[in-house]
Amino acid sequence: MNPLPALRFVFRSAVQNLMRNLGISVASLLTVTLTLLGAGAAVVVVHALDNVLHTEESRASVLKVFIADHVSLASIMNMDGQLATQPDVRAVAFENKNEAAREASAPGGLNLKGALRLLAKTGGGNPLPASLNLRLRTISDVTSVNQAVRSSAIIYQGPHPTDYNPNVIPRLERYILIAQVAGVLLVALVGAVALVIITISIRTAAFVRSQEIEIMKLVGATEWFVRWPFIVEGMLVGVVSAIIAAAVLLGGGFALGSGHTLALGTGLHFALGVSGALIVAGAVLGGFGSMVGVRRSLAV
Amino acid sequence: MVPQGAANDSPQHSRMVSTPDLTPNRVVPLPDTEGGPQPSTRPIIVFERVNKTYPNGNAALSEVSFTVHPRDFVFIVGPSGAGKSSVIRLLIREEAAQGGHVLVDGQDLGRLRRRHLPRLRRKMGIVFQDFKLLPTLTVEQNVAFALQVTDPGRRHLKEKVAETLFIVGLEDKLHRFPDQLSGGEQQRVAIARALVHRPRIFLADEPTGNLDPDTSWGIVQLLLQINHRGATVLVATHDREIVDLCRQRVIALEDGRVIRDETGGQYLEAGEATL
To answer: Whose CA is closest to B12, among B29, B2, B3, B24?
Structure first.
């Protein structure tokens, strides 16, 4: 079979189907647009939430190990070297007492500037310990590394030898997991809804054209020749819906954002990536939904 | 059971019910069927102890056996529910036999893979009582449709369609829609659509069921011409008048069984009760 006339026939039939069932076509186009818009918005929101949580995760992945006063620099350097070779540890930085005081005094820090000045005036000196600041590979390493360093002899032997907060890390880990699972479920749910809508609309179109399908089969058209116009029709619905949804998302993002950053701190590259993914998803959902929708009509 | 050189005699014109809209004397240049005339040694259709029971428990065919040779013209007759349409459905593989074998052109349809079904159906032309025309397409488009969906790149498609519509006597109604035609004309369009790809086997399921006697006669004459040109024709009908006029081979079914198979037969045997 010559592919060009076959392609022409398939595309012409697909467009004719769309136009012949214009009411159904517009209804499914709008519904799929809204569904894909929901999916796109869900991806953007989940991405923004993920960004926030990852920033927090990045902060929480730093473990401050306080060093006891009067420990020799050689001992500190020795521990620094040992920790740096650990697979869980990405980097180690030494922070002396003065740096700790400066950090505590800095705006946005612990805001201890006044207290430290008062201590200095009364001869109390700098009470803040030096520390080894460990940047760990993942947040899940924090608990185990915290346990491991506590046995070291050079560590500050107070109630808090590290800045590990047992309440924060597990909770943060849980939030990240919930956000990721919820995001995947939401996108899967919205995708499933789009699939069902396209399947129903193509099944309706196939029902409307059942006599045409019957004749095609009786005169000897192959199943794929019967099927392709419907698949192309579904893909057209999916792609056009996705383009509209992507345009609305990008437009809304620019309107609510500032400069090159869209709403919710979404970058332009990410937004364009989501738009591209929506178009691909629209085509795939449309094609797959049509295959499912027309399958029953092809039973001989 | 097997007819020896089934007769293709012309109908007895003196008994015609009235003037047909396509007279037997009209010179119609029917095209060759695919592959040209067939040797009559090997049957083109074989039913061998075929059984068919539908899911509702209705036994449509029981131990049905017959053979049809190339260029035969066969009427399958019987009352409603006798199994006539089931024979047609089994031949186009719309249904599968539960027992026995159905062979078309040497191919056992019970072993036919689904993907080879289109190839089988392209050997056949099929017409039905309800015409099955697409109402949104013109006469020309309805006929062209059969070629477009099987061979969209076919050359001289328009000429082929025009030639076929000339054969069925509708060359002047190319641009009419089905609802602008009479019942007989609609059936002619359906015949043209079935004929356009030059099938070797032509099946008609109650082709005159919705037509008046005059128009029915014209349709049957058209089927006879198709047969004269080389196609094997099977007509499932309960139109007694047509069958008796044609004096062709008749396979009579009753309750899913073959009760009679004779060449030059009539719908009813003398003395047989009216069905």
So the answer is: B24
Question: Do A246 and A198 sit in the same domain of this protein?
Answer: yes
Q: Would you call B116 an interface residue with chain A, using a CB distance cutoff of 8 Å?
A: no
Residue A135 bridge partners (DSSP)? A62, A91
Residue A228 DSSP class: H
A222 touches chain B (CB under 8 A): yes
Asked whether residue A165 is domain-assigned, the answer is: no
Whether residues B152 and A216 touch (CB distance < 8 A) is answered with no
On whether both A34 and A181 belong to a single domain, the answer is yes
Distance from A204 to chain B by nearest Cα, in Å?
18
Residue where the block lists tokens 């960004």: A51
Nearest to B187 by CA among B171, B210, B203, B214: B210
Residue-wise pLDDT tens digits, B166-210? 999 999 999 999 999 999 999 999 999 999 989 999 999 999 988
Is there a domain that residue A21 lies in?
A: yes
Nearest to A100 by CA among A135, A73, A71, A67: A67
Q: Which residues of B touch A214 (CB under 8 A)?
A: 132
Decide if A126 is inside a domain.
Answer: yes
Q: Which two tokens stand for residue A169?
A: 């890390």
Q: What is the Cα Rg of chain B in Å?
A: 18
What's the domain range around A229?
3-55+172-298
Q: Do residue A9 and residue B120 have CB atoms under 8 angstroms apart?
A: no
Judge if A233 and A279 occupy the same domain: yes
Q: Does B5 touch chain A (CB under 8 A)?
A: no
Query: Domain with A104 in it: what CATH number?
Result: 3.30.70.3040
Could B114 and A300 be called an inter-chain contact, meaning their C-beta atoms sit closer than 8 Å? yes
Chain B residue nearest residue A221, CA to CA: B150
Residue window 186-205, chain A: list those with CB within 8 Å of chain B: none
Q: What is the pLDDT of residues B226-273, one digit of tens each?
A: 999 899 999 999 888 889 888 899 999 999 999 999 887 666 654 454
For residue A257, is it within any domain?
Answer: yes
Name which of A16, A215, A219, A295 to mutate to probe chain B: the one with the most chain B Cβ atoms within 10 A of its Cβ.
A219
Give this complex's ipTM.
Answer: 0.77
